[in-house]
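Job type: complex structure
Entries:
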Amino acid sequence: MPEFTDLLFFVFAGLTLLFGFLCVANPLSRNPVTSAMFLVLTIISMAGLFVLLHAFFLAAVQILVYAGAVMVVFLFVIMLLDLKEEARRKLNRVALTAGVLAVSGLAAILVRAVTAARPAALALKAGPLAEGDTAPLGRILFQSYLLPFEILSILLLVAMVGVILLSKKDLR
Amino acid sequence: MFETLFSDPTVQFIAFSTVKILVVFGVVMTFVAYAVLVERKVSAFIQDRVGPNRTAPPFVMKIPVIGPFLVRCGIFQPMADGLKFILKEDFTPDYVRKVYFWLAPAIAVIPAFLTLAVIPFGSQLSAGPGAQKMVIADLNVGILYTFGIVSLGVYGIVLAGWSSNSKYPFLGGIRSSAQMISYELAMGMSVVAVFLVVGDLNLGKIVRFQAEHGWMILYQPVAFLLFLVSAFAETNRLPFDMPESESELVGGYHTEYSSMKFALFFLGEYANMIASSAMMVTLFLGGWSLPFLGEPAGSLWGGLLHLGIFVAKMLVMLVVFIWVRWMLPRFRYDQLMDLGWRRFIPLALANIVVTALVLALVDGWGKGT
């Protein structure tokens, strides 16, 4: 049923945009915890978009890593801060207008790019779709892109060691 | 007209899925109610008491022999408990953050039920092409879905602790977020070894593998042990119930909650226990199979038998959960973190490396065996 998945795309895309907006510029509550929770909802709706693309692994990892782990740590830190000052701050009109302008500019470029690339996109659709299963993904990662993958892993390791170095005051 | 409507595969799919969801939900809710009773009876047995043996609707005591027996077993206690939860005053202190205070119990319950969607409760109810698989959603990334949903479960507790806006719940919430993230890592790494052996993430296929080659606990005893202990931490059960720990934090994250909102946390905890028991049975204890009953069922009765086997194994794991709670004292918080990060995660990593080495060096092992 193509119509149904199309409908779902618009539902998830709309939700992603709505939650994303409420995350950065919520008119009802200026509480950082509310913003963090809306970011979690944004991430979950994006996982829905991944599912529609048959990228089940990405969808699951998106929720597992970002919504389930990174955001919990975010929340952990936000809750430990004194939020009264932050919650009292009003919406910055200038920043909001600038943000809306920037986003609409980006959106315009994106729409332009997509419409310009339409024939090519259709050709891509006719070709074989990359399946979202884990085995093909692993094969691609560990055969075609082994070196970039390993470099990225080392980068992450370096970042982790760096964080521990910076946060520990007395190393010796 | 009804016939033509029902021959449409989409309609069939929706109808069967709805029935499966309703049945699983109903059965799990009943299990939750009676798990509480079992918990009280087991604790009574361990502490040399009698346990609940008085609650009875008025007419039951009139039935000879059976009536008094049922009452002594405490069969009617869960109904009284449920009624009590509903009828008690639902008190909301005026210093709480209202929206999150109301949302938190719901967020705590929902993930526990969502994880049950990918668990294969049985093989199938009849043979042939139209056979219904006894799983609500047969996902190819089944276990990753479970971990994703489980990782969302922590929000309920964290938000409850924060929104209560007082010291002890807050400490409970903070503790739970750190504890659950830590043990999620150990849990996730422990199952990687299982997938190395099976070569698939689909839970149904993992059960089929075990039906053909023997239970996973024989191949991966270390992974099972890691998973079991991590499951205790993930469900906030003793000896790892730091977020609650009533002797130091009053009631932990649910101190400010009463009535039905408290009941939802309670329900979430037991539903989580059931979900993780089901998970352990699926991953390590052969799912619906027995060593001499490995073939997918060819008839309705065979299918029901497989369902029964699964439920029986799950109940055994539930009793293990309950038994441990009343036998072990609570860990200290630093001991808990030490165990998670400095013992379990290295052990799980070592287990993965050893499994991978064995798979690579020994012929005829793992994928395709």
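Summary: DSSP finds eight helices and no strands in chain A. Residues 56-80 of chain A form the longest helix (25 residues).
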